[in-house]
Fold this sequence. Notes:
By secondary structure, this protein is an alpha/beta fold. The chain has 11 helices and 10 strands. Strand 6 (about 145-150), helix 7 and strand 7 form a beta-alpha-beta unit.
Amino acid sequence: MSALHIRHLQHKYALTEVLSDINLDLFAGETLALVGPSGCGKSTLLHIIAGLLTASEAVIEQGFRGPACMFQEPRLLPWKTAEDNITLGLKALNIPKRARQQQAHQMAETLGLTLDDLAKYPHELSGGMQSRIALGRALIIKPDLLLLDEPFSALDIGLKLELYTLLRQHITERGTAVLMITHDLMEAVRLADRIVMMVPDPGRLIGEFTLQKPHAERSDAWIYQTTAELMANDNIRIGFGLAEGSLERAEHSHTQHSGCSV
């Protein structure tokens, strides 16, 4: 089974330590959410896992062979059509043009896009449609590891729910592992199997929570209730700065209760 194992990861920018002693595991078919306030190093950690940065120190075993990334901004190439943006990864894999077009049309149908939409350039598309294109570009290469850096944070709730559904469908069908970065605890509860809490100065992990209920059985009422229960947890409240308390106490609690189920 493919897996990612990280041990004792540390990272510095010049003399500033931004990540300290990160230990993390991710397995095929699992969705892991890294939750924490801005500036805690979530994106830096994801960039290291994606190979965009090299950690100052780390032992990393990367068993996934086909990763894909989706970022907060769609990052579409403005001089290419929506279809060409979706098929960028396929072109890099030397897939013939006709096959790329067929797969793009299939992906467009999945994303709720028309053939006319595929012929448009990014500036002709709404923000929501650009996000669909970015998701399609990530999914079309059939990744076994999907890295998400807050790609839904700027979207309205209706579009978020649509893209959540598309993402969960892909994960279920293909057994893709997902590492998602978010500051939205409810989003993590909706999508993740495990939630890890990060805090800053330097970025480190202070709590882990396992969500036992199968995704198909997660009603809105359960999601709201579970989010509220997590918000009452000391580690979560201290991590988000919502309660008085020391990070040292939270970190000690993490060593005692890591992996507690919700």
